[in-house]
Amino acid sequence: MLFKKKKGKPDLRVLFVTDVHGSDVCFRKFINGAKAYDAQVLILGGDVAGKRLSPLVRNGNGHFEGTLGHNTIELESDREIAEFETAAADSGLYTYRTSPEEMQAISSNPELLESVMEKLAGERLVKWLELAEQRLAGTGARLYVNCGNDDPFSLDQIIEDSAAATFLEGRVVPIDDSRFVASLGFANQTPWDCPRDIPESELASRMDATLEGWSEEQGTLIFNCHCPPYDSGLDTAQQLNPDLSIVTEGGQPVAGPVGSTAVREAIEKYRPTLSLHGHIHESKAATRIGPTLAINPGSEYPEGLLRGAVIDLDGSGVSSYVLTAG
Amino acid sequence: MEQSVASVPEDATAPRLYTRKSSGLVREISATAALMGSVCIINLPIAAVTLMLLPFTFPGASMPLSVLLSLIPSAILGGVYVLFGIMMPRSGGDYVFNGRALHPAIGFAANFNFVIWNLLFAGIEGSWISTVGLSGLFASVGSLTGNHWWTTAAGNISKQGVAFGIGAVALLIVAYLLTHTARALKVMKIAFSIGIAGVVITLIWTLLISHGTFVSNINHVSSYKGIISSAKKEGFVEPSSWHSFSPTISGVALVSLVTLFVMFATYTGGEVKNVRRSIPISIYGSLAIGGVVFLLMAFAAFHSMGSEFVASTQALNGTAAYPFASEPTFNLIASLGSGSTVFAFIINIGFILLMISNMIFTQMAMNRCIFAWSMDRVTPDKVSQVSSRTHAPNWAIGIGTAGALIGLAVFTFTSFSTFLGGTTLGFLFTFLVTGLAAVVFPFRRKELYEKSPIKPTIFGVPLLSVLGALSILAIGAIAYAYFTNATFGSNSARAYGVFLGAWVVGFIYYGAVRLIRKRQGVDLALAATTLPPD
User: Fold this and answer.
1) What pLDDT does A71 receive?
2) What gap in Å lies between CA B423 and CA B445, rounded to an integer?
3) Chain B residue with minimum CA distance to A5
4) Does A14 reside within a domain?
5) What's the pLDDT at A245?
6) pTM of the entire structure?
7) Contacts of A103 in chain B (CB under 8 A)
8) Is A5 at the interface with chain B, CB within 8 A?
9) Fewer beta carbons within 10 Å, N or C terminal of chain A?
10) What pLDDT sits at residue B139?
């Protein structure tokens, strides 16, 4: 409520972002958010991999050609190539210098395309984690990263092996002496059959497995589930026809809940203090489910805008929160 | 989820964007659907009022030319919203643009001003259902059939209490419809489709009949020449020409409101469409359709009715010599001139349905603005809650409806705000701020501008800045016309106070909320803190 009194003095500030989808500039902003927002804990909630590849194809002139936005550009100098690659990376695209022959092979082989993109996603994540290690050194800020339903499984080990971040998937991880984050990057089945799309029953099992042995006496519980709870306002997306066209009425897209019933049931069952979500970029929202504050900060990664949630925690739970666009 | 941006050229070795299998890749929304999504905002009910005021307010004005020229500021402003909408494809329209380009407080105050005037306008439309729509229907049927029951009913239904009651019921019905978005959109689509069909059929008929036939039909219910001569006795002076430059230009301000709001597409659901395609189609398609229908209305008024006759009906309105039982709006005069009760029903019901579809669209857009404020924690958190049953933002709908009911009461029972001086000029100030935001955005928020999917330039200058500057000139000229012409009722100390007051309240509210939130430990300044990437 607007006029609700301030709660206890906060002793921990969390910056939560999600669905950066390969955007270099969003990740750099995220890391810098530790200082800008004075946050001690940084959580990246999943979908770190980009979705698109813009190959740079060498043409007959010995130059490279690449596609950015709706334009195909001929790049004549190293500087032009570097600028193109930076702009693409900031928008979440992967670039890949290649020949017309390899291009032909990629075009005709979806598995080859997938493997190229997976390799590039891994390389970018490694670069990000190295950057985080440099920038967060000496700040006291701690980085926690999970994958989302769009992310290839090969990214898990990269995060696991990193000294800069703690991998969160499928476990209860302490973020300070009294607060614990339980995470699940999987999502309920989408029409796109993404790497971590699973049935609701399996989601429920994974959630229970993650929280096996958990008791309230241990401390404050926080959920970090990539998929938002069903029918929470955090999961409102356009309805789709079987051919993946958007259902419209009067020219307006018809929206409805697409979140997970298993995630909702888990929130109702375990009653965490805070529940962090992503997945549905356009459904930026915060709501209460019982005692739980559930947040989806949304995502605007294509525009290089980092959406996030700055959450202050005190002894009794969530002291305050702000949804940010930095 | 997001949309697919994949393109598939014929040549497999050519550079292209590849998209891996990932969530959110959907097919583009069709051009027809995109257009339907915003065409309902074309405000022909306003046209029915303002067009008929034009030759009386500005004697000598050419109705078709004023209407044609009024499309220019709409096209320029539409261009600003098209580019902003593509660069920042999120619901909320200028609340988002101005907040990011200028300052969150300015973004809120400008949007608050826009919402306040829109809620007032929603109330006005509620009133028009009686005073323009139903009254026009009853008056024309009464005159055409000679049945006094209809004529008496036309007078009764325009009375303050009745108009308020019917308007309030209409607003509550709209609110009920909005609690289920799909249902509201379906009703809006049906109402608009039938309404626009009725208006176009009548327009074609009105354009096809000769001026002589129109005069003859008017003579069956009154006296065409008698109305003109009575107006002259009341002091109306016929101009030497109905194609004079100066009144035609001045008249642009009067009729501009009809198509100025085609930018509403950016308020609703921008994030779920292929904005590069759907926003230009929505805004310019609506402008083209609205412009053509409005021009047809102007030609019909000019060609069949005659400017002198139209001006004379306005001159007599409110006097004992006025022969009809309802205000001299386009729907009334066209109905009488058609000589047919069938056409009277078609055109008047058409306009009533257009009012209803417009009310739904307007309220839906305003609700989304109020909802967006709440998501930024500028209003109580409750406002951003959606119904678990219908998924509609019921609190936002309730606030919007309460505001519209207040607008209806103010418009019906007080002279506090006239339609012309109030709503039009009130809106313009938000547009002026958006123009300023467009001018500075490429330079002030360079890091966001550089990430934009399109950055068109003219002679090296960002097109957004150029259109922003042009929109300031165009909208500024309209504002100047309002401030310097007593006819509009805007050049008074009270009017200045109201216009300024909406902004002052917006700024004070935002400042107060920031302080309250800070006491709660919520620092709203964080919400818009720009994060350095390096």
Assistant:
1) 75
2) 31
3) B520
4) no
5) 78
6) 0.81
7) 12-15
8) yes
9) N
10) 95
For strands A172-174 and A179-184, give the pairing: antiparallel
Q: What is the pLDDT of residue B398?
A: 92
H/E segment holding residue B32: helix B31-39
A111 interfaces chain B, CB cutoff of 8 Å:
no
What is the rounded distance in angstroms from the CA atom of residue B73 to the CA atom of residue B473? Answer: 9
Contact map slice: B 457-516 vs A, CB within 8 A: 513, 516
Check residue B33 and give its pLDDT. Answer: 65
The ipTM, to two decimals, is 0.77
Domain span at residue A164 reads 19-50+122-325
User: Taking CB atoms and an 8 Å cutoff, what residues of chain A touch B388?
Assistant: 231
Query: Residue B452: closest CA among chain A residues belongs to which residue?
Result: A303
**B451·A54 Cβ contact <8 A:** no
Residue type, A62: G
- How many angstroms separate the CA atoms of A304 and B217, rounded? 64
Asked if A322 and B524 come within 8 Å (Cβ–Cβ), the reply is yes
| CATH code: domain of residue A143 | 3.60.21.10
Answer whether A181's CB lies under 8 Å from A278's CB: no
A237 part of a folded domain: yes
- Whether A132 is covered by a domain: the verdict is yes
Instruction: Give me the pLDDT at residue B108, please.
Output: 93
Query: B381, A1: Cβ pair inside 8 Å?
Result: yes
CB atoms B13 and A244 under 8 Å: no
Residues 223-242 of B with CB under 8 A from A: none
B8 touches chain A (CB under 8 A): no
pLDDT at A4 over 60: no
The whole-number pLDDT of residue A189 equals 93
Chain B residue numbers with beta carbons less than 8 Å from the beta carbon of A234 are: none
Mean pLDDT for A23-50 is: 95
Q: Which of A70, A66, A71 is nearest to A82 (CA)?
A: A66
Q: How far is B122 from chain A (nearest CA, A)?
A: 20
Nearest Cβ partner of A250 from B188, B375, B533?
Answer: B188
- All domains of chain B in start order, with CATH: 31-526 (1.20.1740.10)
Q: Does the structure show a pLDDT above 90 at A203? A: yes
B197 touches chain A (CB under 8 A): no
Q: How many domains does chain A have?
A: 1
**Three-point CA angle B74, B100, A319, nearest 5°:** 135
Residue A192 lies in a domain: yes
Render the burial of B292-316: b for 16+ CB within 10 Å, e for the rest: ebbbbbbbbbbbbbbbbbbbbbbbb
> Which residues of chain B, if any, have pLDDT below 70?
1-16, 21-34, 36-37, 89-91, 265, 268-276, 388, 391, 416-424
